[in-house]
Amino acid sequence: MKLRRNALLVCGVILFVGLTLFFWTAANLTHLNCCSQEWVASASDTTTRDERTQMRAKSIAEVAKMRRRSQAYSFFCLAAAVSLATLHYLNNRAKCSKNRAAESRELC
User: Fold this and answer.
1) Cα(41)–Cα(85) distance, rounded to whole angstroms?
2) Per residue in 13-29, pLDDT tens?
3) What is the largest CA-CA distance in the chain?
4) What distances in angstroms separate CA 66 from CA 23, 34, 96, one per listed residue?
5) Total number of domains constituting the chain
6) Which of the four pLDDT bands, split at 50, 70 and 90, describes residue 79?
7) CA-to-CA distance for 86 and 91, rounded, in angstroms?
8) For the residues of 6-60, what is the DSSP string, one character each?
9) CB distance 16 to 82 below 8 Å
10) Structural domain span for residue 43
């Protein structure tokens, strides 16, 4: 039973570390690939330029929101991985201390 619990904890740690790396990479790769300033400046009249400026500002805000969310998800996954690793460590430590106590009783 403990072996299964340890295996599940290790799998959970691996899964959450992978998700952390995925979300952190996604946050770093999130960038604005459309609506450049040159595109806004190339508008033929002021109404078009104003609309393009609004579209660009909206796109920049949306990209920033996506980046913050991806970073938050990566931090949550990192916290989950650390907590599962701590549980795994404490579980193995308790098992080792029980084994040591049993061995010391047998030696006496």
Assistant:
1) 53
2) 999 999 999 999 998 88
3) 94
4) 11, 15, 45
5) 1
6) very high
7) 8
8) HHHHHHHHHHHHHHHHHHHHHHHH----S--HHHHHT-SSHHHHHHHHHHHHHHH
9) no
10) 2-107
